[in-house]
Every structure is written in structure tokens, then in C-alpha cells.
Amino acid sequence: MRTLIVLALAASAVGCTRWSMDHHLNNAYRAYDRGDCQRVMLELSQVDRASRARPFIHPEVALLRGQCLERQALYVDAAQTYQYLIQRYPGNEYAYRAQARLQTLERLGHYRSGEPAIAKPATTAPWR
Question: How far is it, in rounded angstroms, from Cα 106 to Cα 95?
């Protein structure tokens, strides 16, 4: 009987974590539709916390984060997010979408392909 109770409690805890993750992801999409990127970032951080053992959700979270960064005109950050997604999850559906977003940014003049989105510091002469 005790074993049955322990198994039921363990199953409910796993379900609660999944429900929480889905709940926050749905809230993030709703906030994105309303244009509330600050709320999107908050909800995505909650998804990250709930999904540590579920890495399959990370590409979707990264893409939505990049789209919100674009919406805030943070194009360099968005491009870095998309590049991370493409490098980390190359065969994933969201990586293909990230590549399309990079191409769109390039056409709009916010990104140049072939150059890393990470800004390199200018080299200066050493102090003498």
C-alpha cells in the first residue's frame, strides 16, 4: 500500500512540473501576442527553471526569446540567440526557423551573413 502511495505522489509531482512548464510557455505566447516582451522574458525564465530535465523544450524557448528581442529592436541579441539555436540544435525545426529569421534580419539590414553577431572589440595599441 505504501508503495502505491509513493508512486502516486511521484507521478503527480512529475505531472505538476510539466503542467507548470506548459502553463508558463502558453503565458509567454499570449504575452508575445499582446506585445508584452517583458512578460515574455519572465515567463520564459520560468519555463527554463521548470524544464531543466526536459531539454526538448529549449529550442522553442530560444526562438521565442529571439523573436521578442527582435520586437524590442535588439537585433544583435536576437541574431546571437538565433546563431546559438542553429549551432546547438542544427537539425531541429526551430533551428530552421531561426535561420529564416537571420535571413529576414539580413534583408532588413540588421544583420550581415558571414559575420558573427557577436561584436568584436577594437584592437588598440598597448599602453607604453
Answer: 16
Could you tell me the three cell numbers for 101?
A: 529569421
Q: What is the pLDDT of residue 100?
A: 95
Alpha-carbon span 103 to 121, nearest angstrom: 25
Report whether 25 contacts 54 (CB < 8 A). no
- Distance CA(86)–CA(76), nearest Å, equals 15
Kindly report the CATH number assigned to the domain that includes residue 61.
1.25.40
Euclidean distance between CA atoms 119 and 74, whole angstroms:
13
In a domain, 72, yes or no: yes
Q: Number of folded domains in the chain?
A: 1
Question: What burial class does residue 71 get, using C-beta atoms within 10 Å of its C-beta: 0-12 exposed, 13-18 middle, 19+ buried?
Answer: middle
Which letter does DSSP use for residue 27 in this model? H
Interatomic CA distance for residues 31 and 48, integer angstroms: 17
Q: pLDDT tens-digit profile of 26-63?
A: 999 999 999 999 999 999 999 888 777 788 889 999 99
